[in-house]
């Protein structure tokens, strides 16, 4: 069997998926995220809300009852829940790390 050419594969996907049928959301073009205007501040607000709603997690971290990775993972889950799973997990992790470091000083 001959491997399909890239052109044939793209044409097939265009027919099947019909990219014009998908609505773009704010900050997207053709279904791809092209900018993050406001997204970082929304995620930062969700991180702050998760930390404020779960002071026991920070307290356990300060007292050494929980490992930093466990607390960060729990809070990341809370942020993902708040954002409906739409936040970038890597960005959430970076913001959490900064906020946790800040709260431990």
Q: What would you note in describing this structure?
A:
There is one protein chain. The chain has 105 residues and is mainly α. The chain has a single domain, classed as Orthogonal Bundle (Arc Repressor Mutant, subunit A), CATH 1.10.10. Helix content is 64%, strand content 4%. The chain is built from 5 helices and 2 strands, in the order αββαααα. The protein has helices at residues 6-17, 39-53, 55-63, 68-82, 89-104, and strands at 28-29, 32-33. Strands 1-2 form a two-stranded antiparallel ribbon. Strand 1 (28-29) and strand 2 form a beta hairpin. Helix 2 (39-53) packs across helix 4 and helix 3 packs antiparallel against helix 4 (68-82). It is elongated and about 60 Å long. The chain starts with 5 loop residues before the first helix and ends with a helix.
What profile does the largest beta sheet have? Answer: 2 strands, antiparallel
Q: Poorly predicted ranges (pLDDT <50, ≥5 residues)?
A: 29-35
In total, the number of domains comes to 1
Strand order of the largest sheet: 1-2
Query: H/E element string?
Result: HEEHHHH
Q: Key terms for this structure?
A:
2 strands; single chain; mainly alpha; Arc Repressor Mutant, subunit A; 105 residues
